[in-house]
Amino acid sequence: MDQRIVIVGFMGSGKTTVAKALAARLGCGLADLDAIVCAQQNKSVPELIKEQGESSFRDAETAALQVVLDRQAPRIIALGGGAWTLERNRELINKHGCLTVWLDAPYDLCWQRITDQPAPRPLALDENAARELYRNRHPLYALANLRVEVTNKMSADDVAARITAAIQRRVITKH
Ligand code: S3P
Fold it and tell me: Which whole-number Å values give the CA distances from 1 to 37, 109, 111, 171, in the listed order?
């Protein structure tokens, strides 16, 4: 039961808050990939993408992911919404034997959360672009090991409870 857990999902699906709730439940450490990339360069994600371009941001993201995975700790890793959609990152994560959990939140909920937050999401500046991205990425998120449905009625701790229950079921059925 000490496999590392990588949380994936669209912007606004709640990856960071759910990862925090899950870390509190399991009493383990947490890494947030966006926060690591930003701390390394002392800039926000919008600044990095605006100044260096998306491709350069993706390279920094993959480099940070590699370092976090090589370190063996912390146990929980929350990705930015685009990280899992790159094959090279999926390969890295799978090669390290992590359990991937997709927070499957409906588009409307993601969009509501995106627009509620003051920090801009450079890749979801307008609704059509965000909806298109959501649709295109859906089959890639579905490649995660576990899918946990998220609704607007659920708190981050409710989602974390579902994740731990799903992991338990998975452990039981494997034995
Ligand atoms: C992105 C999601 C963002 C951040 C960057 C790119 C994406 O993270 O990494 O703006 O491509 O979906 P969140 O999912 O935490 O918003």
Answer: 28, 31, 34, 8
User: pTM, whole model, 2 decimals?
Assistant: 0.96
* Dihedral sign from CA coordinates of 86, 92, 93, 94: positive
Residue 27 token pair: 């009493």
CA of 174 to the centre of ligand 1 (A): 33
State whether the beta carbon of 80 lies less than 6 angstroms from ligand 1. Answer: yes
pLDDT along the chain (175 residues), means of 10: 92 98 97 96 95 97 97 93 98 97 98 91 91 98 98 98 93 73
Which residues lie below 8 Å from residue 151, measured CB to CB, with a gap of 6+?
Answer: 105, 106, 109
